[in-house]
Structure formats: C-alpha cells, structure tokens
Specification:
alpha/beta, 9 helices, 57% helix
Length: 205
C-alpha cells in the first residue's frame, strides 16, 4: 500500500512549508504548487495561465458562487475563466491519481483528499492556525499593515474554500473530511512535520 498524504491548509498556516519538511523527514516526494505547474506545462498550459486558474477564482464562476452567499447575488463572470479552471482541475485530477498510483506521495491542496478518496491508505491532514499567528507569519515577508494582511488572509481562504467546495461538494476545513486537523502554531513547522511523521510511521506499519 502506497503512503499517500494529502495536506489542506489555511493561508498563512505554513502548510506548504510543513509538507516540504515532512518530505525531508520521510523521504516521500512532495507535490506542491511548483510541481503541479511543471505538470501543467507538460500539458501545454503555460505557468502564468496555470497560476491564474489554480485555486483562484477572482473573476470566475467559482468565486462568484462563493461570494453570492455574502452579497446576495451572482456577480458577472467570464466563461473562458470557468473553462480554463475546469481544464486545469481535470489535468490535476488525472495527474494526482497517477502520482498516487505510482508510489508514495505528499500532495498539497488541489482537492487531493477528495480526488483520492477511493484510494486505500490515504492520510488526510488539514493545517490551520489562529488568525494572529498567521498575521505574524505574513509580516515576516515584509507586509506590516495588519488590516491589509487580514484582507489578504480572508480573500485567500475564501478562494480556497470556493474552489474546494465547488469541486468536491464538501466543506473546506470541515473536520469530518480529514483524519487530522492540526494547529501549526503549537509546534511550528518542524514540530508539526514530526507529529505527522509519527502518525505516518504508526498508520503505515
């Protein structure tokens, strides 16, 4: 049975960093945004186009749907955006399944927990953290305006939620969709990765 770990994450919770540290600790390859951009390029989708569609929905049908519950109506969207988002999602679905079939893997985001739901031995993890912790993390990248950071976090999380909810029919971050929900502020990147590794070691005996 392949070791298949999926990691969902709130923006600013260091989920991607934890996934990469987990890869270092376990030797299991990690497939994150950069790895999937490379896969998309093999399918003829340029990196800049992939980035526009990947877990993004700013002007798209998906974001309009997500925002409708806040504004009370569906905003205008571009059909080309919707088609592009679907194309990227379909390519990712095929590649994520291929990766999981071929060997051990850690996959970050991209609805992987749902895409691989029928696979044996999938360990589904969701990384979250308190807002203030995430604000402090983002400040380390040079942004100092807390109101701007809060808006950035809120917008990013809504995008991820709209993408996940639309394609899975489930609730992004809902504990019942994952085996582990971990607050990364408790142990930091290395400590959280070590905690997940201890579960992997026990689960895949």
């Amino acid at each position: 049975m392949n070791k298949i770990i999926t990691i969902g994450r709130q923006f600013g919770s260091l989920g991607s960093e934890i996934a990469n540290k987990l890869s270092e600790l376990t030797g299991i390859p990690c497939y994150d945004r950069d790895a999937l951009i490379a896969i998309a390029e093999k399918h003829g989708i340029p990196a800049e186009t992939f980035e526009k569609a990947d877990e993004q929905a700013t002007s798209s049908f998906l974001y309009s749907l997500a925002m409708s519950s806040y504004s009370g109506n569906i905003a205008h969207f571009g059909m080309n955006d919707h088609i592009l988002t679907d194309k990227v999602f379909n390519i990712q679905t095929v590649e994520i399944k291929r990766i999981a079939q071929e060997g051990d893997c850690i996959i970050v985001g991209r609805c992987a927990d749902d895409i691989l739901d029928s696979f044996d031995g999938v360990l589904k993890v969701f990384i979250h953290a308190p807002l203030e912790y995430r604000i402090d993390i983002i400040k380390k990248y040079g942004e100092t305006d807390e109101n701007a950071i809060k808006k950035q976090i809120s917008k990013a999380d809504k995008k991820r939620a709209s993408y996940y909810n639309f394609y899975t029919g489930k609730g992004w971050g809902d504990p019942k969709n994952y085996h582990m929900n971990i607050d990364s502020s408790l142990l930091g990147v290395e400590g959280t990765a070590k905690l997940i590794k201890s579960i992997i070691d026990e689960y895949y005996k």
